[in-house]
Amino acid sequence: MYQSQALIGITNARKNPPLEQCVWPADAMNNIPDWVYTSQAIYDQEIERIFRGDTWNFVALEAEIPNPGDYKRGYVGATAVVIARAEDNTISVFENRCAHRGAEFCRSSQGNTKEFVCPYHQWSYDLKGNLQGVPFKRGINKVGGMPADFKNADHGTRQLRVATRNGVIFATYSDKTPPLEEYMTKEIVEEFDVPFSGKRLKILGYCRNELPCNWKMYHENLKDPYHATLLHSFLVVFGLLVPGIKSIVFADKAHGRHGFMASAKPDEIYATVAADDKAEMRSFSDNLRLRDERFLDYVREFNSPWSANMMTMWPNLIVQRQMNTMGVRQIIPNGPNSMVMQWTMFGYENDTPEMTRHRLRQGNLMGPAGFLGLEDNEALKFVQEGLRNSSTGNNVVKLDAGHQGTARNLISESCIRSLYRYYRDVMDIRVAEKAA
Ligand code: FES
Ligand SMILES: [Fe+2]
Question: Where are the beta strands (DSSP E) in 113-266?
Fold first, then answer.
């Protein structure tokens, strides 16, 4: 049998069209063409219009840089940035690109410093990204060096606008991005504030993995409750998400670009699933049992109807809350056919040692090999492989047809449709005329 790995790196030219050939099929709501996921030209336009457009991009948690001088390397879209806290306690985000010859000068993933010094020719920057020092600026014995009119102030790093909410840091390239809360919209702010209420966070650990799929597939995955009941054995056997439980797939009312998939788990550990539903769900198995049932203990700690909430905030943040395991996931696009996922797991500073242990134990649900994350990674890889070199080129999103946005049933693709309606607008993609 061929290993699909052998084909990675190759995209059929037909699946990699230039922008002018990217025309959405006429029945735009119910179909998504493959080039949305495979075209380099589309990807390049996404970097400009979405990640460098009027969007707030998640970059870090304040708990990662609590003290003056603390910094972290990060990304806005695929662009490397530094997130730093200056002596005056303000937070700055600036491109990790030396103003001299472009070196990515900040090399450590995290640390504390008084200044950043580029390894190549030792230009130095302060914690806000301003150029401080240029060695031999006046040459040696006044021979060589920079021209007399060279001013450090004209040669800093590219600095981004920054906004924070309850310990979460966002950055934007655009002056036109509205204030953060307006950008998020009311219902998203309310759900965001459940884990981020202002309580001080404690970082519990990181995971990082590459997924050989387009970055938008991860957004879709969390707007796709249909797969959750079919792909994830763990979710259905242990009653975390089964047909019939209280759940919602929400899309923000302004654009349909942010959303959340939330559910309220019943008290029993093992799911009660109707015989008819079981017959539809091949991943359901009555034989699966936990060796250690503490794993699914649920300590009610929030005033929320939902025991689980997976929130997507366009374009690059997932806030994950599943019982007592919490984290943020950052989507880092990496070309049309790849993305990197950065997972940051957290609890609270005032957690007891037992609660921290419980969060860490339950954290095994998440991450690259988590009981609830594993299958998504693989399924999305399969999709990207299916798209890149096949002879046909269309994806069908017709479940719950005729509806867009929020759905209260699990067998729906209505939130995926609202996301792509917004996406076509922001990307300025033409829709084909219906044939007469
Ligand atoms: S490239 Fe950074 S100092 Fe020259
Ligand atoms: Fe999933």
Answer: 116-117, 124-125, 131-133, 159-165, 168-172, 201-211, 247-251, 259-263
* Separation CA 434–CA 155 (nearest Å): 52
CA–CA distance, 374 with 368 (Å, rounded to integer) = 6
Cα 120 to averaged position of ligand 1 atoms, centre (Å): 5
Closest ligand relative to 320 C-alpha: 2
- The DSSP secondary structure of 36-100, one letter per residue, reads HHH-HHHHHHHIIIIITSS-PEEEEEGGGS-STTEEEEEEETTEEEEEEE-TTS-EEEEES--TT
Q: At 177, list the tokens.
A: 């991005």
Q: Is the CB of 98 under 6 A from ligand 1?
A: yes
236 lines ligand 1 (CB under 6 A): no
| Contact (Cβ atoms closer than 8 angstroms) between residue 91 and residue 164 | yes
Residue 170 pLDDT greater than 80, yes or no:
yes
Beta bridge partners of 310: 261, 320
Taking the centre of ligand 2 as the mean of its atom positions, its distance from the CA of residue 85, in whole angstroms, is 35
Q: How far is the CA of 110 from the centre of ligand 1 (A)?
A: 21
Encode pLDDT of 319-341 as tens digits.
999 999 999 999 999 999 999 99
For the beta carbon of residue 374, count every other beta carbon within 10 angstroms: 17
CA 298 from chain centre, in angstroms, equals: 26
The CA distance from 165 to 158, in Å, is: 23
34-48, 156-170, 204-218, 242-256: least confident range: 242-256
Residue 119, amino acid = P
Question: Cα–Cα distance between 351 and 318 in angstroms, integer?
Answer: 23
For ligand 1, atom 4: residue with the closest CA: 121
Q: pLDDT at position 6, please?
A: 52
435 secondary structure, DSSP code: P
Element (H, E) at 330: strand 325-333
Answer whether 150 contacts ligand 1 (Cβ < 6 A).
no
Measured CA to CA, the distance from residue 201 to residue 329 in angstroms comes to 15
